[in-house]
């Protein structure tokens, strides 16, 4: 009987000619198909993310470790899957939230949202000009910081007429800082003794992408998660007026504006969880199942995001976009934290 695993030739010629790299990119026979060791490692880590022992921050760390060592063997697939998985996860989280509490959280966060979005765009313009960066890159990084990270950049980019290089630099900058925020914010929140509502509001304003906002808030507590998700999604709706303003300022006629329709799914799920249990007793059990699946989906989303941040992506951004991103991030995080602690 032939062995199940049979050593063969590399699937692709690896760039770094090291024995370590070649080992993970050699193809092997598995049954009737062929896989690489790297693909097997990816699969094992993905399965680990389905278990309750891997939290969203750990999943991100596993993805980053994979990307920085052997690389992501399914880069194209994870890039296509990540946005849909995040949208499903956000909608699923709505089944665990109460509409009345969400309205209250949104009302409390709206003034901070308006002030921080406007202030970030203005500050980004002047800092970007000082750094000598192109207008499109500056606007994309500023929008990603101000609204909702990669989603805002993906929506504003076509309206702006951004080139592929502009998009890559902006997304790379925001994703790297976004990953750092997921690890940094919970310890800071605990050190400052922030309440769960305070931390949730701070996350929603100061962390770029919805995935890391939800991941950081979930690590802090259920109430923080509820506040953070609601405020962040309300903030994401600002993509529409900002996109319209972008088309006018940059004189892009006939530009197509992408509307984040999945937010409607989140609202529908939240209304279902608030009102359906009074009429359908099984609704609460269904909601619990959906929330559980959503949290698993979020963990997988962060693993895929981490797996996409290869060393090449990090280096390709350059220093100046990171400087812009860090300045905006620090100012937004510090100013919003001060407002939450002293003006709330």
UniProtKB/TrEMBL annotation:
A Pfam family that the UniProt record links to this protein: Cons_hypoth698
Localization annotation: Cell membrane
Main location as per UniProt: membrane
Membrane topology of this protein: Multi-pass membrane protein
Coiled coil (residue ranges): none
InterPro entries linked: UPF0324_pro (IPR018383)
Domain of life: Bacteria
Residues annotated as transmembrane: 41-64, 85-103, 109-128, 140-161, 167-187, 199-221, 233-250, 262-280, 286-309, 321-341
Keyword list, A-Z: Cell membrane, Membrane, Transmembrane, Transmembrane helix
PANTHER family: INNER MEMBRANE PROTEIN YEIH-RELATED, UPF0324 MEMBRANE PROTEIN FN0533
Family: Belongs to the UPF0324 family.
Protein's UniProt name: YeiH family protein
Native species: Hymenobacter bucti
């Amino acid at each position: 009987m032939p062995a199940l695993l049979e050593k063969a030739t590399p699937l692709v010629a690896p760039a770094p000619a090291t024995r370590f790299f070649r080992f993970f990119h050699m193809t092997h026979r598995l049954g009737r198909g062929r896989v690489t060791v790297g693909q097997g490692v990816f699969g094992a880590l993905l399965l680990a993310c389905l278990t309750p022992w891997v939290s969203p921050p750990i999943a991100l760390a596993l993805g980053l470790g994979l990307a920085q060592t052997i690389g992501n063997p399914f880069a194209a697939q994870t890039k296509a899957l990540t946005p849909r998985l995040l949208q499903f996860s956000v909608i699923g989280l709505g089944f665990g939230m109460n509409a009345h509490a969400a309205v209250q959280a949104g009302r409390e966060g709206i003034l901070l949202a308006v002030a921080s979005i406007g202030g970030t765009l203005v500050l980004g313009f002047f800092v970007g000009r000082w750094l000598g960066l192109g207008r499109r890159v500056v606007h994309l990084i500023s929008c990603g910081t101000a609204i909702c990270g990669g989603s805002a950049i993906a929506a504003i980019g076509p309206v702006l007429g951004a080139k592929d290089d502009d998009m890559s630099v902006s997304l790379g900058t925001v994703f790297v800082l976004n990953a750092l925020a997921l690890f940094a914010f919970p310890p800071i929140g605990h050190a400052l003794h922030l309440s769960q509502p305070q931390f949730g509001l701070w996350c929603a304003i100061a962390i770029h992408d919805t995935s890391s906002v939800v991941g950081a808030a979930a690590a802090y507590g259920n109430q923080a998660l509820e506040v953070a998700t609601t405020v962040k999604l309300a903030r994401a709706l600002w993509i529409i007026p900002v996109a319209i303003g972008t088309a006018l300022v940059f004189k892009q006629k006939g530009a197509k504006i992408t509307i984040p329709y999945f937010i409607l799914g989140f609202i529908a799920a939240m209304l279902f969880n608030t009102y359906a249990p009074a009429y359908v007793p099984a609704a609460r059990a269904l909601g619990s199942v959906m929330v559980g699946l959503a949290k698993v989906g979020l963990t997988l989303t962060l693993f895929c995001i981490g797996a996409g941040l290869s060393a090449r992506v990090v280096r390709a951004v350059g220093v100046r976009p990171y400087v812009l991103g860090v300045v905006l991030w620090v100012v937004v995080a510090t100013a919003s934290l001060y407002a939450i602690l002293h003006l709330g």
